[in-house]
Amino acid sequence: MAAYKYSAPPPPSVDDTSVFLVLVNDSTDHSEVQAPKPGELNKLRRAALGRPLDKHEGALETLLRYYDQICSIEPKFPFSENQLYNNNGKLFSHTCGAFLHIKETVLSALNREPTVDISPDTVGTLSLIMLAQAQEVFFLKATRDKMKDAIIAKLANQAADYFGDAFKQCQYKDTLPKEVFPVLAAKHCIMQANAEYHQSILAKQQKKFGEEIARLQHAAELIKTVASRYDEYVNVKDFSDKISRALTAAKKDNDFIYHDRVPDLKDLDPIGKATLVKSTPVSVPISQKFTDLFENMVPVSVQQSLAAYNQRKADLVNRSIAQMREATTLANGVLASLNLPAAIEDISGDTVPQSILTKSTSVIEQGGIQTVDQLIKELPELLQRNREILDESLRLLDEEEATDNDLRAKFKERWQRTPSNELYKPLRAEGTNFRTVLDKAVQADGQVKERYQSHRDTIALLCKPEPELNAAIPSANPAKTMQGSEVVNVLKSLLTNLDEVKKEREGLENDLKSVNFDMTSKFLTALAQDGVINEEALSVTELDRIYGGLTTKVQESLKKQEELLKNIQVSHQEFSKMKQSNNEANLREEVLKNLAAAYDNFVELVANLKEGTKFYNELTEILVRFQNKCSDIVFARKTERDELLKDLQQSIAREPSAPSIPTPAYQSSPAGGHAPAPPTPAPRTMPPAKPQPPARPPPPVLPANRAPPATAPAPVGTGTAPAAPSHTPGAAAPPPQAQGPPYPTYPGYPGYCQMPMPMGYNPYAYGQYNMPYPPVYHQSPGQAPYPGPQQPSYPFPQPPQQSYYPQQ
């Protein structure tokens, strides 16, 4: 089935900007289906309605084709009359609220007189017009739905009041188009006539025939007024005929049958009013498809509060996850020390317990010792790569600083720029921080390798096929009498419950990681209302609301495990008393314990090594950015140094007795060649505070028969002395001001900021690796300090406190 979208003009009063018509063709060969051209319907419409038609067969065919097309399209528009009325009545109410919002909020924010189109009187009138039209829409809907005449009369009477109020407010103003006033007056009369008409029907139902005639007469007078004064703007012929027919019939029946007295208009009971509309306040965002382009741009105080909130959230999440992982590690250790569940599975004494077979299969599927060996082999290469990047970064700083010190020693007070050793202090502090990170990472690598070597043989045994594994486990005398005993059943039940607790923790950990709540709106609201942000109170309240239930479940899980482990140990003591004990059985049990412990260590080692690899790779990216910063500032310093040397050479060359200026090695010319020209810098204006060398005195006036000296003292490093500038009497000396590097005065290197460090991993404490947030613990005001990690880990450095270069 082939579908094509065709844009057609919407019918009147439809709020959508366009209606898409789906044309479906069920022919067999869908490749030949052609969608209609967008302009064909408009051509048909213009041909049928846009110009007068001649009275012949061709003109009739044009009308018939257009009529057939309209009849074909009509059932394909997916909107109903109820939807049409409801949408328009919501829309008019929203527009009314928008005009009131301009009047009450926008105009008060202007610091000048508003233009006439948005003056308070204008927008107030427009708001009333919108409200009247919204009420009219519900009147039309009630009429179409054939609701009770009493309700329709009240709706029409209320709409008449709204139109009347709008007309009174704008009849003496010239800020609106002239067509607005007669239309409002006509609408007022029409709505009032509708109210009288439907109230007359109600009077007839109540057998008040005189009242019926009086109300119809009033309605006929109102419509007559509209037809005589406002026929240019509205057409009421149909409604007028309808009232006339009803009035004629009512008079006829009353004259021949009822003879009821027709009361005066002033004696009639007033018609009630019913309003179904009100101004809808403007609530941002108005559009349903709105996307804030500046969502992440917030005030500094809000940004600081968000950083503090995120740190509190990270502390809470990391602490909860660490507690659960440490509890799981403890449970695994207890079970391994008791040889569970292998002990209750090993009733026969000569086969591999099922739990050991499961652990063996898992180790083999993960690659066994080959996986661990490969991961350990990659660590030194990653470490060396990071060290080389760090060494090269610091070497750039060292070389530039040494050159700066040499030139400062030679030129002394003339060398006026920030010393490199002061400028590079933040970078060197950051480099020291990185060096500390790498040193601690090496220690952690060593601990992981040592741990692996102590369990490597047992892990390798788990990688053996089942026959070889069974042969490596000593056999013992069977104890089949214990099979099916109460103690064994109790232990199995307790172990099953403990496994369920571990699985529940996995779900809790995922829930803790996945919860996300943006505090930006709360902080912005607090800042707008109070002028300040009480971050601690808001964050603690919100974190308790979001994570309170999860942290409670974490504590319940820990408490449940504690009770289970206690019962497992008691039941295992009874199991051990019943079990026959001999040397063979003890040796077999010891091997099974080692195999269970080897599996736990294998899982932790693989996780640690993968996290360590990730740590080194992330650190590489950060060190590359650090190297780029060092390279950028060194390049800028070299450019500044070259320009400063050029200024000094030119200044000294203009002095009466120029001292020799040593040429730096990097500017020296090759043997037999000329010195390369220094790079041409971008022009800059030297700061006024920089001291300038004294101006050269004017040259003496020489007699005509004496020639001035042809040369001046030459600077060191040039093969020949440059010619002194020639002067004529009265000529001014050239300005000593020189152009500098493309930077303003170089008091510091602006734009420097600390880079984030990757999350470290801890080869022993579960709370330190594979965490959703960096495990940074700090003491909040008014709170007790959190316990820090108790095991060695791959740490990460704390950024220096000073995030900018010192200004001169």
DSSP, total strands: 2
Task: Tell me the fraction of residues in β-strands, as a range.
Answer: under 5%
Helix content: 55-70%
Number of domains: 4
Instruction: Give the overall silhouette.
Output: extended
- Helical run tally: 19
The CATH C-level name of the largest domain is Mainly Alpha
Task: Note the run of SSEs as H and E.
Answer: EEHHHHHHHHHHHHHHHHHHH
Mean pLDDT across every amino acid position: 74
**N→C terminal distance:** 76 Å
- If you consult CATH, what is the topology of the largest domain? Serine Threonine Protein Phosphatase 5, Tetratricopeptide repeat
Architecture (CATH level 2) name of the largest domain = Alpha Horseshoe
Q: Provide the spatial order of strands within the biggest beta sheet.
A: 1-2
For the CA atoms, what is the radius of gyration?
46 Å
Structural class by secondary-structure content: mainly alpha
The major beta sheet can be summarized as: 2 strands, antiparallel
Protein described:
The chain is an all-alpha fold and 808 residues long. It is 59% helix and 2% strand. The protein folds into four domains: 14-83 and 286-297, no CATH class; 89-281, alix/aip1 like domains (Serine Threonine Protein Phosphatase 5, Tetratricopeptide repeat, Alpha Horseshoe), CATH 1.25.40; 300-330 and 480-578, Four Helix Bundle (Hemerythrin (Met), subunit A) (Up-down Bundle), CATH 1.20.120.560; 339-476 and 599-652, alix/aip1 like domains (Butyryl-CoA Dehydrogenase, subunit A, domain 3). The protein has helices at 40-49, 57-73, 81-109, 120-144, 149-170, 180-205, 209-229, 237-258, 300-337, 342-345, 354-365, 368-411, 420-423, 425-462, 466-472, 486-514, 520-530, 535-578, 583-653; strands spanning 2-8, 19-25. It has a two-stranded antiparallel ribbon with strand order 1-2.
